[in-house]
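Lay summary. Proteins are chains of building blocks that fold into shapes, and those shapes determine what they do. In this project we predict the shape from the chain. Here is one chain we studied, written as its sequence of building blocks.
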Amino acid sequence: MKTIETNVGRIDQVLRIAGGLLLILLFALGVIGPWGLLGLVALATGLVRFCPVYRLLGLHTCGSNVQRLP
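And here is the predicted shape, written in a compact code that computers can read:
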């Protein structure tokens, strides 16, 4: 089975989850338009601690303690 390296650190993870939830909430309340659904992407990447864009750019915010996800 192939594993995925995490590339999202703890602070990045917390910010992605909080920002994603905020965008989804604002969309649900009708404060912002459909682009608020981008909060789903931020939420998902925060929960799984993997960002495909970071991988394409060779970035990671998790420091030297890289974990592998099953």
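What the prediction tells us: The longest helix spans residues 10-28.
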